[in-house]
Design a protein that fits this description.
Elements: H1 2-15, E1 46-49, H2 55-64, E2 70-73, H3 83-95
Parallel strand pairs: 1-2
Helix pairs in contact: 1-3
């Protein structure tokens, strides 16, 4: 469910000239570590968006080899985040370090 929202966020962010991509695992066991290997040791931020307590974020950190550029988002109630909430988080992260 969150993946569909994120797909639309990518399109919206790109219209705002924010470089944004999406890795959407179809299966999480085994976790698709190979998808993250090209991004290891690069200065690219990863935002893990979940409806739970960040279980996939741990897998992303392991796949990247560190948590330096790994961020986590879920709304405060643990329910489905809105596209507005996610896009605001993306904007915030894109402005950091500029």
């Amino acid at each position: 469910i969150v993946g569909r929202i994120c797909k639309s966020i990518v399109a919206k962010a790109r219209k705002e000239n924010i470089k944004l991509g999406l890795i959407r695992p179809i299966m999480i066991s085994p976790f698709p570590n190979e998808a993250f290997i090209p991004f290891r040791n690069k200065d690219i931020k990863f935002l893990t968006i979940e409806m739970n307590y960040g279980l996939m974020r741990k897998d992303v950190i392991l796949a990247l080899g560190n948590e330096k550029n790994s961020y986590f988002f879920r709304n405060k109630f643990g329910s489905l985040p809105s596209s507005k909430e996610i896009l605001e988080e993306v904007r915030k992260l894109s402005m950091e370090g500029m």
